[in-house]
Amino acid sequence: MKIDLTFLHSKVALRIFSFFVISSILPIVFLAAISLVQVSHQLVAQYQKRLHQESTALGMSIFERLIYAETDMSTVLDPGSTSDRTRQTTLHERFSSMMVFETNGGTTTLFGEKIQIPVLNREQKDFLSAGGTLVFSRQVGNSMGICMCRSTGKDGRILISQIKTSYLIGMEEEEAAYERIKPTLIEGGSVVFTALTQGELLALLRALDTSKQPTIEWAHGGDRYLANAYSIFLKSRFHAPIWTLVLSAAKSDIQATLETFKRIFILVTIITLFMVVFLSTNLIRRSLVPLEHLQEGTRRIAQGDFTTQVHIHSRDEFENLATSFNVMTVQINQQFKTLNTLYDIDQAILSVLNIEKIVHIFLTNVDNVIPCESTGLCLFDRSENERDVWHNYRRENGSEIRVVGEILHLKQEEIQRIYVNTEYFLLGMEDEMPSYLHSHIRQGMQHFLIMPIFIKYQLAAIVVLAYTSQPRFTPNELLHARHLNDRLAVALTNAYLIEDLNLMNIGTITALARAVDAKSPWTAGHSERVSEMAIKIGTNMGLNSHELDILQKGGLLHDIGKINTPGRILDKPDKLSAEEFSIVKEHPHYGVRILEPLTPFAEMIPILFQHHERFDGKGYPLGLAESDIALSARIMAVADAFDAMTSDRPYRNGMQVEQALAIIAAEAGHQFDPAIVETFLQMMPKVKKGELT
Question: For a FRET experiment, which of 41, 248, 632, 673 has its CA 20 to 30 Å from that of 236?
């Protein structure tokens, strides 16, 4: 089964998931650590206890078997106690050999190999004489053997036998080597029996020498062992030194049990973890996946995507929250559309002063503020003297937004009706429809919201929002619509103000130009004609509207410095003297001085100062050449020269146009810029025919 964990990218989900996992895994790990330590200690303690119990039991068993062996030897001395067959079987099971030492020094071997009687000290002899049984060890080949001696009585004979070590221990040496618990029997410093290897035995003996406790830990070859020593006291019964029985067990056997426990624990932990992950992820997913969707929705809103919708079907509070969220996003989207539209209109107020552009921006954005099916704007034509001329604009419906316009003549009663409702009013098909709604009606619109715009208390525009069915407006929608109307009113006011300022500016400049030209009847209209010609040349050269505006104003004022030139020089019918011509050449300087204080006219100064410079550098006042001369001044030079040549002067009559054009063509590259001359010559035939305006 695949579990979707992508929701865990959420910090809250990770926190809750981590809490679930930690709250289940940490107790298990903690308990496991304690359990492992305790189990390890308990296993060691159990093994130590087991070794102690088994060493004690085996030690006591060895003592008992010595007693049984003593009893068996008594049956040899007393033949009538058991049947011969039973006695012989028992003796052969417990003894490897048995013989009798006679008083005369001879020996009688009952069975097995011959045993050499050891040299006994006085104490041992007295113990035997008293009827005791003597036990001692002796070297038999490469190993030690256990012998038992007993006096036969008054005849002075001694019965001696060698006890099988396997009988005492309870197992053969080869068999003991494969046991998990391995015995070692030591008499004094001699090893009587061991199941250990030679190396293991030496390691054990070293541990016994250093340990004062019965419990011993020792190591050999990287393996560690637990051992328990049990002392068998034989002095009182068999007049023998203390025997030490050591049982050893490898710790790896204990670890094997512990490893089994670890594997079981790990399996249980994995199963527990899987269940925790499965249950916790399922619970967290049901709770946090909806939260993740809501978080993603808010993130998209923060990025500006106000069309975001969140779809949750959890049938709980999250679904209700998602529904509220979606309602909120719709409202926010509408609010931001409104703000963006108002911002666009504000941008038009600040940066767009062209009436057509303002109308286009308004009509293409108004339905983002207040929903409508068609929009219109009826705008008063200020250029006409008659009050009933209006331009009616309408945005057509379709895949592409296109604003179309028509000229209307509104009736006085239609205008008066608007003055009665200065805020807004609604019209339906049952009402009398004014002419500015006819184009909307032809498109199937039947209901209209009319909002007038007044500038200086005069009706300047009529905004129309059209619908096919009866609209229902919220207070916010009507408020936004009025705000939009107010912004449009400000935009139109600014545009009209700039138009009026431009008209006044051009009028002022024209008046100045006429004042200069009026100083001499021979130059009347010269500045206006030069300005018009310069504009035509600039238009054909592809100059923008701002550059053309500079040409127009610069052309009107290019000779303003001649105000300081005496009239006797301007009207002199004869050729000017060198001194008089030097006075005329001063007029560019005077023109610059006149315009310098007027910052808005700064861009015109190059025209005033450089329009008498020559392309070949032989002009005045600075002798500039080619591109060092401003383009507007180079254009003005051609226009000024053409008008001067074709106009009458006190000292000559005006030339024919063809003659003037020939002179200008000849001066291309000398007095005039060749590119401007080429453009001028190409356009002149059209000017003469009236095709170029």
Answer: 248
398 in Cβ contact with 404 (< 8 Å)? no
d(CA 363, CA 462): 12
Q: Tell me the mean pLDDT in the region 526-542.
A: 88
Q: 190 — phi, psi (to 5°)?
A: -105, 135
Considering only the C-alpha atoms of the chain, give the largest distance between any 2 of them, rounded to a whole number of Å: 193
Q: Are 506 and 528 in contact (CB under 8 A)?
A: no
Q: What is the SS3 assignment for 316?
A: coil
Query: Which residues are CB-neighbours of 446 under 8 A, at least 6 positions away?
Result: 428, 429, 467, 468, 469
Report the candidate in 4, 24, 1, 28 with the shortest Cα–Cα distance to residue 284: 4
| Average pLDDT taken over every residue of the chain | 80
Q: Per-residue DSSP letters for 127-184?
A: HHHTT-EEEEEEEETTEEEEEEEEE-STT--EEEEEE-HHHHHSS-HHHHTTSSEEEE
Strand partners, 688: none
Distance CA 451, CA 513 (A): 45
CA angle, 406 then 410 then 411, to 5°: 155
Residues 6+ positions from 635 with CB-CB distance below 8 Å: 534, 537, 538, 541, 551, 676
538 vs 546: CA distance, rounded Å: 11
- C-alpha 438/C-alpha 288 separation (Å) is 57
In terms of CATH, what superfamily is 518-689? Hypothetical protein af1432 (1.10.3210.10)
d(CA 540, CA 683): 8
Q: Which position has the token pair 């011959």? A: 114
Neighbours of 643 (CB within 10 A): 23
Q: How far is CA 125 from CA 136, 152, 158, 234, in A?
A: 13, 13, 11, 17
Residue 442's identity, in one-letter code, is R
Examine the pLDDT at 634 and tell me if it is beyond 90. Answer: yes
Domain spanning 348-498 has what CATH number?
3.30.450.40
Task: Tell me which residue of 127, 108, 117, 129 sits closest to 162, measured CA to CA.
Answer: 117
**Non-local CB neighbours of 503 within 8 Å, separated by 6+ positions:** none
Q: 65: which residues sit within 8 A by CB, 6+ positions away?
A: 94, 167, 168
- Side by side, the strands of the sheet bearing 107-111 are 107-111, 95-101, 158-163, 143-151, 133-140
Which residue type does 147 have? C
Q: What percent of the chain has pLDDT over 90?
A: 7
